[in-house]
Design brief:
The structure is a single chain. By secondary structure, the protein is α+β, with helices and mostly antiparallel strands. Among the domains are: about 50 residues, Endochitinase-like (Wheat Germ Agglutinin (Isolectin 2), domain 1), CATH 3.30.60.10; about 45 residues, Endochitinase-like (Wheat Germ Agglutinin (Isolectin 2), domain 1), CATH 3.30.60.10; about 40 residues, Endochitinase-like (Wheat Germ Agglutinin (Isolectin 2), domain 1, 2-Layer Sandwich); about 30 residues, no CATH class. About 15% of the residues lie in helices and about 5% in strands. The protein contains 6 helices and 8 strands; from the N terminus they run αββαββαββαββαα. It has a two-stranded antiparallel ribbon. A hairpin with a 5-residue loop joins β3 and β4. One of its GO terms (molecular function) is chitin binding. Keywords: Chitin-binding, Disulfide bond, Signal. This is Lectin-B-like. InterPro entries: Chitin-bd_1, Chitin-binding_1_CS, Endochitinase-like_sf.
Length: about 260
Amino acid sequence: MKTYLLLFLVFSLIIQISFGEGEQCGHQVNGTLCPNGLCCSKEGYCGTTKPYCGKGCQSQCDYVPPPTAPPPPYVPDVQCGRQVNGKLCPNGLCCSKEGFCGTTKPYCGKGCQSQCNYVPPPTAPPPPPYVPAVQCGRQVNGKLCPNGLCCSKEGFCGTTKPYCGKGCQSQCNYVPPPTAPPPPPYVPVLQCGHQANGKLCPNGLCCSKEGFCGTTEPYCDREKGCQSQCTLPAPAPAPTPTPPNPTIPRKVINILDAVI
């Protein structure tokens, strides 16, 4: 029994060391900070739980664990095409030869039944990188925060009211950088013609041989298979040039009057 207990303690110690936990810190070792932004407990050890980050914590006491990526949502198989009476896929997805909805080559390539030029909506920007707690102020010899961040009363860098408000030590009027404009809204591909039960395109757009709406030559040229509303938009008429206004010299007018 003692052997099993000893093995368990050794194994726990190895795990703590591998993650940076269990290392010494604080005034017990000349004010050393914990790696990876871990909290330093009253007793001078690194960790992330309440005994380390709560009462008596010496430094980096507001440890924030790095964000975990959520798992992708489950998408059930959606049927489409001739297998289910010509049903179209939602959100403009392609319908494969076998009658299932998707966005990759097996769905949108050879044998695709409908909506075969799927354009994915713009992706959201990646989440900001994880930034461990940064110390500042009198707690670390008056050090300023990077990028103009505020230094809180407790000596940590941030941008919200607890950092920039009451008790803020330095750089207390932080102005965030301007945000990028939102991406344009996603516009699904419009189908028409015999691929969509003879449906006409909105706003008088041409219907191509493949059954998609547009305004350029591949959509509107009858020789290339345009199905309906095949008239290309007429170009704007060019402005008519103004004829020059001829001026007749006064001497010529006098001669003409004398002849008449």
